[in-house]
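User: Could you check the structure of this?
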Amino acid sequence: MTPTPSTPVAEAAPRSRRVYTVQEKAEHLALFEQSGMSPADFCREMSLNEATFSLWRRQARENAGGTESLQFAEVQVSATVRTTPELPVVSLHVPGGVRLDVFHTSDATWQGLGLLLKTLNA
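Assistant: Sure, the predicted structure tokens are below.
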């Protein structure tokens, strides 16, 4: 039915749009990986839009350099084992007896370690 001037038309309420920070997206992705739930169930539980969450997952895979599903490697990070005046050393113990000492200089160090661990885990 076409509205006429005498027929009132209900106006749609403006929809509010939630903007998530990078940190919030990463936390949701990590929770999802640990949950064991399907994406649909997780989104319903967390009140997330499924299409939005699917976009986050795809972007995370692309940023990680691959299209496979996200994977996490279990590591133990020990206390700083030794330091130089400028460069603390972080020691990683990877399952299988591998130990890696890394000079921690910036956040890029953690990103590089993440890529290294992902590659080793593949």
